[in-house]
Design goal:
With 265 residues, the protein is of the alpha+beta class. Helix content is 21%, strand content 41%. It has six helices and 18 strands.
Amino acid sequence: MPTIPLYQIDAFAERPFAGNPAAVCPMEAWLPDTLLQAIAAENNLSETAFVRPRPDGDFDLRWFTPALEVDLCGHATLAAGHVVLQRLRPSAKQARFHTRSGLLTVERADGALRMSLPAETPAPCDPPPGLTDALGAKPEAVFSGRYLLAVLPDGATVRALKPDMRAVAAIDAHAVCVTGPGGGADADVDFVSRLFAPRVGIDEDPVTGSAHCMLTPYWSARLGRPTLRARQVSARGGLLTCTARGDRVELVGHAVEVVEGTLKW
């Protein structure tokens, strides 16, 4: 019976059962894509990360939702970095991953993890038909990029949203990210966000690292500072420190291992 290790990591979390859970499966060689997809569906988490060592000492990294392979996932990269630095190479200071989105790194940072991802400056666009009705709130501005980004007037509005997921899935976008400034219940952060991705099998993602590749450049330009504190205000929630560095975004967060097991088939 074939087996591979499986770890479940809560990313962007300082305690178990918070942040965004991701499964991480290290393996010596790629399994068939159909089997990788079946494993991700079996895990039924927003992402499963598959990690394979390379001859040069780095790693290859791929990410699968329960429905499909994706080009970039931030929280599962942080989770994979945690597994490499805590389990596979505990003496290493950095994990280097080769992915569909280029070289990504995760390194130790004073008890947390610092991750480098490609930045994406969002481009202003017209709201697509049905967006306001789908969200239940009218955005002040809308931007396009990896995700559709809708800017709302304040964090309270972001928190209170009860979107119509069927209507969100009908919007021509991989996912819809909503954001607003900190304040009130979120006075300790610079901005908040939520992300809805029913098209790829995730109604609401708990904490989305890849969305902060867009959010960081947007809020850095708006607030005039490179380093910001952010909270994704999903039910589980997550905190991030975000820094805009030209064509890169650095995200700092914690990760907690909650499951260690063996996958069999």
